[in-house]
Specification:
The complex is a heterodimer.
Chain A: E1 9-18, E2 21-31, E3 36-41, H1 47-55, E4 62-67, E5 70-71, E6 85-88, H2 102-107, H3 122-132, H4 148-160, E7 166-170, H5 178-193, E8 197-201, E9 214-219, E10 222-227, H6 252-261
Parallel strand pairs in A: 3-8, 3-9, 6-7, 7-8
Antiparallel strand pairs in A: 1-2, 1-4, 4-5, 9-10
Chain B: H1 2-7, H2 9-34, H3 40-61, H4 71-92, H5 97-118, H6 127-131, H7 139-158, H8 160-168, H9 170-175, H10 180-202, H11 207-221, H12 225-249, H13 254-279, H14 297-310
The chains are: A alpha/beta, B mainly alpha.
Chain lengths: 266, 311
Amino acid sequence: MTETREPVIEARDLHFRAGASHILRGVDLIVEPGEVVALLGANGSGKSTLVKTLVGINPPTQGTVRLLGEPLTAGRRTTVDRSRIGYVPQRANAGGGIPSTAQEVVASGLLHGRRLALPRGWRDRVAAALTQVGLADRVHDPVHLLSGGQQQRILIARALVREPDLLILDEPVAGVDVASQEAFATTMRRLVDGGLTVLVVLHELGELEPLVTRAVVLGHGKVVHDGTPPQARRDHDRAGHRHQHPHADDNTLGEQARALDLEVRP
Amino acid sequence: MITLMLTDPFMQRALLAALLVGVTAPVVGTYLVQRKLSLLGDGIGHVALTGVALGWLVGAGMGLTPNDALAIPGAVLAAVVGSVLIEVVRRRGRTSGDLALAIMFYGGIAGGVLLIGIAGGSAGNLMQYLFGSISTVSDADLWLTVVLSAVVLTIGVGLRHALFSVSHDEEFAVASGLPVWALNVVVAVVSALTVTVAMRVVGLLLVSALMIVPVAVAQQVTHAFGRTMLTACVVGVVVCVTGLSITYWHNVSPGATIVVLAIAVYAVVSVVAPLVTRRSPAHDPHPDLPDDVDLPAAATERAVAAAKECR
């Protein structure tokens, strides 16, 4: 990150419409090199949509995105160097109709842009990425038989395997137990010390709190707060408050508690 | 007796064609199952029938002999156009892939029967394409099969990691900047070529079985994408060559024999596979991690005991 002081992410006046719903309504977001930015907001405030727009999954209806100083244009003509960007989606899709191993899924993270074949030494790189998320012994296990939290960590490994300079994560610790969250925070600390820039969607800061340098809070498709990480609600740690962490098999009670957890003070 | 079969030039050509189809069809089928488009091969097969009739019509118009000289090129063309069209429909997302496939099924058959009538033939002329005619494989047919199989295998195996990535998680592939649209079209075109390659062996109506059933067999015994593809190819070759050999001595339809054989293998494996895996020693699937809550001493002891039981 010596050659450039340009923002790593630069989004200007982003709008995204899906049919009749206007999901992003003019979002400006700048992330500088070395920052760890938490993206917060209630369910449905547009966090995931924003992240998907930033990585090119949702083409913006209006506005521009620049990644690593290069414009992200629709189609393949973009000059953004994808090998430097890692993306962790919110949850494991059901995957395809054929079971695949952790090694196969993580290895797919090594392909990007014009690189359509695996590089030399890919097995070692996949093993290293799985070690970083604590799943080194699961390399040949079929992913669909792993638990929800373990599948989440496979997706993190898939993003880390290309050794990115920018990591964009969508609720990476939802449904992950505290011990694994701590391990994840330790890994992130080491990578951030090594110059990694992070944009992470969270519903509470949790174990990542000491790492987060700035928080951006979305509300109704707009940035409503951009600055110091907000404190959790004052009644958050009151006696009897129970943390409910969302999980793949969430019940409705969990959903309600999750919505409560999301309220932060700008 | 086997030497008799192997020295018969008709049988030599037929066996080689069956071998090639046995390898290529499951390679493509693996991607189709992965993206939950198992019936795509059927849809393409139906459209290819229109192509056969169209080739026949053009051939008859040009006064070519035999009048089905352009049938196979017509099938290749129609199959490629049809498969790309379905990819376009899928991308636009207005019509579900399922509905688009259904329309292809009906349009393909109806178009084929209509055009063959206009060309002065009858629906009966289409039978050899619907159910295969491997015993009449000519040298030219064989060369076309070899070339198309080589193309399919080169792409299907050479691009396997990229095609896996796109089939496994399309959004992630987009975020990685992979040429997702181009790769999807490649899968569609390769499927179309495979359908036309397999057309002579098992017929358009049974093409898809050869793509899908070996993959279904492989899934019973393996849990990895790469191994599924490899196992499916082995199953494909074995059933194609065995099925064809049976028809050398018994007067039955090669295509139907091959497909029935494949389904029989599937049935046997799905009965046997669970018995074999049940016996193999299971390792402890539970990671040894601290709990998120403070447990009373008695619970901790029980947890330690439970961990021992799993080892």
